[in-house]
Amino acid sequence: MLKPQKEDPIIISVGGSLIVPQGEVNEVFLKKLNIFIREQVERGKRFFLVAGAGKIGRKYRDAGKAVIGSMTDADLDWLGIHTTRLNAHLLRTIFSDIAHPRIIENYDKKLRNWKEPIVVGAGWKPGWSTDYDAVILARDYGANLMINLSNIDWVYDNDPNKYKDAKAIKKLTWEEMEKLVGNKWSPGINAPLDPIASQLAHKLNLTVIVTNGENFSNLKKIVEGDDFKGTVIMPFKIDASFYDREYYTGKKGGYKHRITESLFGAFFRRLAALYRALVIKLFINPKTCLDVGCGRGILISYLRKLGVEAYGVELSKTAMELAQDDIRSYIKEGDIVNIPFENDRFDLVLTFDVLEHLDRSKIKQAIDETVRVSKKHILHKIYTVENKWITYFHKRDFSRVSVFQKKYWQHIFIELHSVSVLRNSLFRLPSFFETIFLLKKK
């Protein structure tokens, strides 16, 4: 059985509009935040909380202008920065028993081997907001999720306070986001994510969720990977299947070396499918098997030749059309979040390099579906950060929207009450090559 490991930290940018909405400290919000964070810490979560300035910062800037007539952008920024530091000290005081003693005010001075589950950050330099600081934390500490808490449910195509016909946007690419917020910073700018932060997040291919910070039941869904309300900003669109990847805005992934693609690509794919079929037959030996996200059905073909009654589910019509004629009849069109088979149907349900292509909000639902249609075993091969070998042959595949560390997936599987995670009942290559989880239904 696997034991849970420390999860990667989650970055939360706490807007000043939530901490001091009208220049007065919002005690109701802070009490709810305190309860929420502590509950999540008990579940093994770790957080960076970055405090914004809010209207109190604007009041200081306005007061300075009123007295002396005009101020430089740098002076205006410094007033806002010091306001964020006051708000950060308030958060640090609230979580003093579980927070790191140092508030991050200089992001060049990185933390080393910190043990506390909470770290609080504040503003740093003139020229950008705490949104930018939060993106820096995501970059430097390997966070796979950044949440921008504000007083709005969504990003809108126009300011909803000024335009009654403003439309909520559920998903955005960074190119689309930059068109909304522009590319220049100004002190006190009011935007769902400031332009400088957007540019860095775009460069890092980061995923950011913008949501209403006062809706803690919704925030729980985000943190725990359930379907949620909020705008997802990503470097690509995720409304199509793996094979139908015309949704991606920008350069697609591919082989680094032409010889790899032209001479060996197809051969290696078939060799990998044969290897997987042999491992499944030798170490699990199921009578019936379902390959979810089966693509062209190459693995199904090999499993059937080895005497396994294998079937497949595939979302992409393009992939199904490419399947061999004698295999296509064993493949059903369907989605992993709604597998078109009854409960307890197969001895083994498996996915190979599928889960990392799912939007984070669909991961738990997809895993639950694979458990539902299995009566004995569930196998998931997932591309994770540790699988370094692929970087020597492939460019980055941007359709992998959920590439996390192995321990992220371990935590999800360990929390499932209906299965146990098996450690040594299947031959596995080292994590440098692949990450595989074998589950047994209770």
From TrEMBL:
Record-linked Pfam families: AA_kinase, Methyltransf_11
GO terms for MF: ATP binding; S-adenosylmethionine-dependent methyltransferase activity; UMP kinase activity
Domain spans labelled Aspartate/glutamate/uridylate kinase: 10-212
UniProt key word Ribosomal protein: no
Pathway the protein acts in: Pyrimidine metabolism; CTP biosynthesis via de novo pathway; UDP from UMP (UMPK route): step 1/1
Methyltransferase type domain mapped to chain residues: 290-376
Any one biological process term the GO annotation gives: UDP biosynthetic process
Entry's EC annotation: 2.7.4.22
Keyword field contains Cytoplasm: yes
Protein keywords: ATP-binding, Cytoplasm, Kinase, Nucleotide-binding, Pyrimidine biosynthesis, Transferase
Highest taxon above the source species: Bacteria
Sequence similarity: Belongs to the UMP kinase family.
Name this polypeptide is given: UMP kinase
